[in-house]
């Protein structure tokens, strides 16, 4: 299943919210949405429409349509399940199911769609989980804020009590001064006023500030000199708060400070303890008049081990025996074992493979002596000048060895005032005015479309202007067909689970 886009559109075809999940041009998605109102039927609650390249799966929501666009190879049952999940999300974030309400909730809906679909694939989540992910709630953060608010409230209470005590002391001192006023001389009052002038004229303020320890906030200083000294009781109240949360079923740690790294790691779903990445890169330069200038393949096998205990392993690989295929192993690897039995293992069996989140390259290889018939994709360009225009016909032919994904053929153009006139195309096109490029894109090339063509016209130009043509694509299989057949544990126990990602990508693919 590959979901190209999810949208909420009006019945007139106006896109209110649209989120795409694969690399596609704006003109491509706008064209697909514009074509939808002409294809949609009436009187159905759940239905779909197929065109030559895509499938529209949609559901009416009052005066709107919830629309999911997928490729034709997608499983219709999975498409309906995705549509059902999205139909539950729209009312959650847009209570008013009209154009105004959906536009107001567009940002929240786009975020919710991202949580439901990732890279074109439906995530195994519920509506409640999506709402939690979008709200980004954290129990540690909530606990931290509550504890800090409790401390602030305790400090304010302590300050109010302290002010009350000071005011009471001032009143008692005034009564004492009145009672002994005849026994004092004028000099005594002048001395008192001069000593207290810098501190508000009251010695009590002087005592309270001069006796405060440096570096400690006054609100948190214990008032031991006042009769019936006070204690903050912070630990008791905090513990009561933690106990109440524990009673409600929350998992509370003793350290209430939130840890960013721990919360981040806890949100990442667990993966297989061992992951293998196999990648081959194509470097090819093809002559426009047929023939190959250069053609080679460079491959890498990288290993990722999450835990140290799973690093005591060996990898049994297998590959297709091709002429011109040569391997190079990491110095850490036992070369004799690899050459004789195709087993990737460390020289020192007591040392595990490195662990962590980074991939470690173990084996590299190169394939040379390849012929033109081995090209995954051949591109031919035929420019011809007729009057004031140049007509350009481009065609591709794909090998049956690979199914190619996200194919982009970039053709240089002369400086133009506007976009070229594309008259026929198998796929989609986009004009890059800044770099003066015409990008021809095909999402998938498989048995149904091993060949295709495009024709466009521009003002009269030199035929060499349309070269070099750059090609980019990816595939889920490789030339060497190298893969890990099994994991061989070096210690007792069952072999750990592993996953492997195999892909073929273009590094430099030119038609000159």
From TrEMBL:
Record's keyword terms, sorted: Cytoplasm, Cytoplasmic vesicle, ER-Golgi transport, Golgi apparatus, Membrane, Protein transport, Transport
Keyword Zinc-finger found: no
Gene3D superfamilies the record matches: 3.30.450.60, Mu homology domain, subdomain B
Subcellular location: Cytoplasm; Cytoplasmic vesicle, COPI-coated vesicle membrane; Golgi apparatus membrane
Keyword Ribonucleoprotein attributed: no
PROSITE patterns (UniProt xref): MHD
Role played: The coatomer is a cytosolic protein complex that binds to dilysine motifs and reversibly associates with Golgi non-clathrin-coated vesicles, which further mediate biosynthetic protein transport from the ER, via the Golgi up to the trans Golgi network. Coatomer complex is required for budding from Golgi membranes, and is essential for the retrograde Golgi-to-ER transport of dilysine-tagged proteins.
Family statement: Belongs to the adaptor complexes medium subunit family. Delta-COP subfamily.
Protein's name in the database: Coatomer subunit delta
Organism: Urochloa decumbens
